[in-house]
Each structure stands twice: as C-alpha cells, then as structure tokens.
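Re: weekly structure request thread

Next one in the queue (445 aa):
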Amino acid sequence: MGEHPVHSKTDGALSVQEIAENFSDLHPPLNAQQVQVEASRCLFCYDAPCVTACPTAIDIPKFIRQLATENVTGAAKSILSANIMGGTCARACPTEILCEEKCVLNTGEHQPIEIGALQRSAVDHLMATANTHPFVRAAPTGKTIGVIGAGPAGLACAHELALSGHDVTVYEAKAKAGGLNEYGLAAYKMANGFAAKEIAFILEIGGINIQNGQALGRDFSLGDLRGKHDAVFIGIGVTNPRALGIEGEELDGVSNALDFIETIRQADDLSKINHGDDVVIIGGGNTAIDAAVQAKRLGAKNVTLAYRRGPSQMGATEWEQDLAVTNGVVIKHWVSPLAILGKDHVKSIEFEFMHLVDGVLTSSGDKLSIDADRVYKAVGQTLVSDGLTGLKIQHGKIVVDADGLTALPTIYAGGDCIKSGEDLTVQAVADGKKSARAIHAMLEV
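Done, posted below.
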C-alpha cells in the first residue's frame, strides 16, 4: 500500500479491512526481476563507503554481487554473518542516513542503490527456504553466559556466543523476546509477525535458553548471575519514559508513545483499539513519528506532532518526517507543552511558542491551544538503574571500555544502555556481537 493511509470511504470509522491495509507492509518486498535490476546498478566499489556507514560492517558490494549472479543464499549468509538480525535491519534501519546516504550513486542525477530492499530480499529468501540454520555451532566449551535482556543487543550477543560453543541463558523481563523489535517499532515496519520469526530463526543455532518474566533487580541480581555464569552481558536498553513535568500529565488519555505502540503491536484486532479523534504526540524522534502515523492509520481524525525545535533538530529522519506528512499528520515546530487541560480526561493541551536567542531555546510569550482526547509522550527514555550496583553510570548510560566491559570483571554491556552511537537496532547488534567476541576471547585464556 506504500506510504499513504487508506481513508474510510464513508468518512467515518475505518473498516477492519481498511485498517488491515493501513498496517500492511510499508515497503512491499522486491520481486526477482526488481532484485536483478537494482543489483545490476551497483558499482561494487573498492573500500565501499556504504560498508563503513554500516555499524555491523556488512560487506554490501559482496552480497549485491551475489544477488546479481543469483546466489541468493550466499548473499543472505554474507549479510547474516555480519548481522544476524539483518532481516529487521533491512526493514527498520534508517538506511537513508546510513548505507544508502553514502552510496556513490547518491547524487543529484542518480538514486542510491536500494540496499535495504536488496538485503531484505536475500534474508527473507533464506529464512523461507533453508532447511537448516546457515551456521553451525562450534564444539561445546562447557562455559555458560548470562544475558540480561532479549532485545537486539542481547540476542546478537547470545547468538555469537552460542556459535562459539558456549551455552547462553537469556533473562527477559517481558513475556516475549525481541525488545523494541517486538514491542516498539511501528507495526507496518514489522508486518506479518516478522520479529517473532526472526527470533525463532536465531534460536535454531542451539545453545540459547530464553527465560521470560525475569527482571534484573526484581527476580535476580548481578551477583546471582556472576555466581551462576562465567560471564554476563547486559542489554537492558533504556526503558524508563521521561516525564514532561507539567500540569495534567496524570489525566486519563495521557500516556507514553511506546505504550501506545506496544498496544498496537500486541493487539489481536486493531479495530478494537480506542485511538481517539484528536491525537497529539509530543516529541521529535522516530518513536513520535511511529505513534503519529499509526494513530492516523487507525482512523484518528486529527493527529498533531508537536516539537519544541525546528525540523532540522528533530531526531526523526527527513524521510520519517515526510512519511508523517503524507499520512496526514500535522507537524508543529517551535512549540513546547505548558499544561494538559481537562477535568478527569484530557480535553486540550496548551503550548508556548519557542525561538532561539543567542542559541538558547526561549519562550516567545505567545501561546497555542490544541484540542486533544489523546496525548502521547515521546520525549525519550532513561536507564533503569535497579540492580546495577557496582557499575559506573555516567550521563544516564553504563560506562564500558572498547569491548563493552563494565567496571565489574566478566560483566559486559551493550545496546541503548551504553553510549556507543545512535540508539538503533543495527548499533545494538554491533555492540552485542563485539562483546560476545570479547567474552569468548576472555574465556579462552
């Protein structure tokens, strides 16, 4: 269905079919002919800039050349050997600011190679047709590792360690594995239950046991895992939503954007979600965009995304901002929330206009009121430090060395809970894999 929502033909509530179409795959996969045409455009650069732009350093020219010669399985193995979550990254990575931005064809006269689409084609083919896992575990080492968090960092770490012959137990607080891939990405980006399919594929390597409903600081401590395992990897992300700190934040109808997205992702029937008619999202990142677009695609009449700075300062990419606009979302820049108004349920939200004075964000004194029966906060998350005793935490992140080693021996960390780059799935995968290799080297000594 592309980037545009399907509108109700009766100008009323969307039908079940219309909502289903709205939440179908945002980027339908390429067919075989399209793959060949796109792969043939690649120049197969030496020291390709697209590779250096990828945090997991996938050999992009190699896998595209393999696709061009119809070696689809080989292409998938080239991708997955560098990034075991290459399927998710092909769908959700902001390729427009990573590999595709660096493509040498990305000029005023040419379009960059559709690297993400080609990557998806290869990985999806292998996952759909392979009778066995493409990688084989090394001989058992007798070593065990505890991984905290079954998000991208934890799963990538677990897979790499299992590949090396270690036994891994993953402790996950939620009922399902996957982290933000399962709970926090727009449903149209991860259509048809792909997050769960990818996890099942990863677990086929063997040697990985996921224990759900196990939270650090509640069900176990770092000390518990240090006593039980030869090493520990922490991939807990940042899961504490920031508050706005304004009047009315406790009103019914006000919630966190990630909770809204999770509700959509876990719903059996999207038509049953009470999405509201006048929806306001506060924030400027990709989570804000995901919440806004999905509210519109569920059938909300008016969806406004409010951000306190300008478009160039938004965390969301330009492509994501355009997606919101083409879906009917109104983006208001330079407005900061003052108060959420209503008796029991939210009725409106008051903003103040902002501008820069000598580089400092300052109120202009003018105000704006927007009707709202739903307000979703998307102003970021912070680290939950419960159970992290003994670790060094700085600026809300766990401090690690170049290998991901924390202040405690044998305990490593990666993903959004450390500062290693952009808070992206592909960066989390790179962190997890890097720490897994460091753990393996440590255990071999």
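The mean pLDDT is 95. Residues 144 and 167 are 5 Å apart (CA to CA).
Next request, please.
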